[in-house]
Design a protein that fits this description.
Helix content is 42%, strand content 20%. It has 342 residues and is of the alpha+beta class. It is rod-shaped. Bound molecules: 3,4-dihydroxyphenylalanine. The site of 3,4-dihydroxyphenylalanine has 11 residues, from strand 9 and strand 10. 3,4-dihydroxyphenylalanine binds next to strand 9 and strand 10.
Length: 342
């Protein structure tokens, strides 16, 4: 028995070494025939189990089978190694090198701010609407209670494409378009580009983005208006930001207000950003003038509502502390990369 086991061990060692030493598939095949083939040494040893005394056979058989299985496994492994190409055998790339970053693009700060504002109003039930940039003077001015000879129209003297077609000066005309199409309740936010004959300097651009808002239903009050705007200010600028409604005038709202927020930089102390006032203006707004409802065919005795309009660029500048509006229009990807949310 001892003799049997030691021969088995010797065969396991020499067989393993021979398998590992084989350097080509046909060489390995020869080794296989020698060790595992029908006339091979292991096969003969296995047959020899029968000649051992009865009591020793189970242990001897088990040991012989273990050696056989281990040699077969080693053989299979070596066969796989020999049929693989050299590049598969050893990794040729250094997996510890840092990856090469790929430019995925980035959204413009105005897009980020637009999405964020629209998402906040979405929580209040507002949906996005859009309208054309080439707009008729009726929608841009007349429907909004602004006669063409009114001084408020002069202020927005702008780019005409034809006698009665203008590059829209604000997103407010979409109010009228939506109201003509849909019955109340209406709650919309309208992002989009607008055009004015403005100078191009640190705080003005002749084309810029706005977001318009409109809510119309039965029983909407000034309280709903103030609460909705204040909610937005808190959500967008932070809980500790104060909101101020200053009386103002717009032809399409009555009463009208300009909405200020406490200066984000000095928190109301007064600094250069807020020109010492402690406040920053963020939007025009008000209760929809009944004349606008009449112009679009809404019953102005039955419905009330509020509207607002804000410049997205201004708000992006406040949010990201961008000092010059022109950076929004002249910059390249190095500028854009800085603002993308994670
Ligand atoms: N359309 C105005 C502008 O561009 C902004 C505005 C003011 C929009 C009051 C409104 C509003 O909806 O109610 O200057």
């Amino acid at each position: 028995m001892e003799d049997f086991l030691s021969r088995l061990r010797e065969l396991e060692e020499s067989g393993s070494a021979a398998i590992r030493a084989a350097s080509a598939p046909d060489e390995l095949e020869q080794v296989r025939v020698q060790i595992l083939g029908r006339k091979a040494r292991l096969t003969q040893l296995l047959r020899g189990v029968r000649e051992l005394p009865q009591a020793q056979r189970p242990q001897a058989g088990a040991e012989a089978n273990r050696v056989k299985d281990s040699l077969i496994a080693l053989f299979d492994q070596r066969a796989a190694e020999l049929t693989q190409g050299p590049e598969e055998r050893a990794p040729q790339v250094d997996l510890t090198l840092p990856g090469r970053g790929r430019w995925r693009g980035a959204r413009h700060p105005c897009t980020l701010v637009t999405d964020e504002i629209c998402d906040i109003f979405k929580e209040l039930g507002f949906v996005r609407a859009r309208g054309p940039e080439a707009e008729s003077t009726w929608y841009n001015f007349t429907a909004l209670n602004t006669p063409l000879d009114h001084p408020a129209a002069d202020e927005q003297d702008t780019f005409y494409l034809a006698d009665d077609i203008v590059l829209r000066t604000h997103t407010s005309p979409v109010q009228a378009r939506v109201m003509q199409e849909w019955q109340p309740p209406v709650r919309i936010v309208v992002p989009g580009l607008v055009y004015r004959r403005d100078p191009y300097d640190a705080s003005h651009a002749p084309a810029f983005e706005q977001i318009e808002g409109l809510a119309v239903d039965e029983g909407i009050s000034f309280v709903d208006f103030k609460a909705s705007i204040s909610y937005f200010v808190h959500r967008f600028f932070g809980e500790d930001t104060a909101t101020r409604f200053r009386p103002s005038f717009f032809p399409f709202t009555e009463p009208s207000a300009e909405v200020d927020v406490s200066c984000l930089l000095c928190h109301g102390e007064g600094c250069s950003a807020c020109k010492g006032t402690g406040w920053l203006e963020i939007m025009g707004a008000g209760m929809v003038d009944p004349a606008v409802f009449d112009n679009v065919g809404y019953d102005s005795e039955r419905y009330t509502g509020f509207a607002f309009g804000m410049g997205v660029g201004r708000i992006a500048m406040l949010r990201y502390r961008i000092p010059d509006i022109r950076l929004l229009y002249e910059s390249d990807v190095r500028f854009l990369q800085q603002f993308e949310r994670a």
